[in-house]
Amino acid sequence: MGISANTYPTLHGGGTQHAGSMSKQPSAGDGNKRGTYKRRSIEDLNLPPEVQEIFTAAVKEAAGKPLSMAPESPLGRVIGAFVEHSLKQEMREHLGYDAHQRIVPEPEAPCRRSNTRNGSSKKQLKTSMGSTAIDVPRDRDGSFTRQLLGKHQSMSGEIEQRAIAMYAHGMTTRDIAEHIRELYHFHASDGFISGLLERVEPELIAWRSRPLEDVYAIVHIDAIHLKIRDPNGVKSTAAYIVGGYGEAGRHDILGIWIAPSDHTTGHGESAGFWQTVFVELQKRGI
Question: Buried-most residue among 2, 12, 146, 167 (CB within 10 A)?
Answer without folding.
Answer: 167
